[in-house]
What does this fold into?
Amino acid sequence: MDRNGYILDLGLIDYKEAWDLQHRLWSKRVEGELPDLVLFLEHPHVVTLGRRGNRSHLIVSKEILETMGIPIFHVERGGDITYHGPGQMVVYPILGLRDYGYRLIRYVDQLEEVILQVLKDFGIEGRRDPSNRGVWVGDEKIASIGVAIKRWVSFHGFSLNYETDLKYFDLIHPCGLVGQKMTSMAKVLGTKVSREELLERTGFHFRQIFRKDWEKKNLREILNSKHEIRNKHEFSKSK
It folds into this structure.
């Protein structure tokens, strides 16, 4: 088991660019060119549909979305329809799940645990709902999970509303749940939430649950990584 892992903070990044990047990094992880990765980022306004995504859960027309400058993507993650936008922390782990002994349900449980522990640090009591994955505060949803796993390597992940403009969720039936209201950390607390503090606490709890030697990297370092060559050299020395 490779004990290394890389953490990247990509800031605000276009959804299509991040989606393409995930595919590129997933391929490198599958081929052993990179260790586990976790991407922290935010997206400009965008609506996405997962594998079970149903366009009937889009309340407004595609033309209205185009007028608002909001693209829509149908992607391979699990789940139905969701919205991403500024003020929402998005986390995309690209993990070799065999290293952890995880199957899908256990992996989703662990992602929920990261979110629950982060909320607890901010004085928010979150809860699970086994019939609707993600994290809830009371009867409102604060975090959504939609993952993809191919060749035992994960991509996509979860989103946590911290200072999200919640009116954008009125464009859809979030997660396909008619009448469901979303909430945010700022709404629950009645105060602003520091992205820097949220990033630090999310990184901390991710490290606690997915135990590896996580190291912060920038994207250029990752794409120029010599990880595969180093590992082959170490393997040859051990033979």
About this structure: Residues 4-238 form a domain with the BirA Bifunctional Protein; domain 2 fold (CATH 3.30.930.10). The chain has one domain: 4-238. Helices lie at 15-30, 62-68, 104-121, 185-189, 195-209, 219-223, 227-238. DSSP finds seven helices and ten strands in the chain.
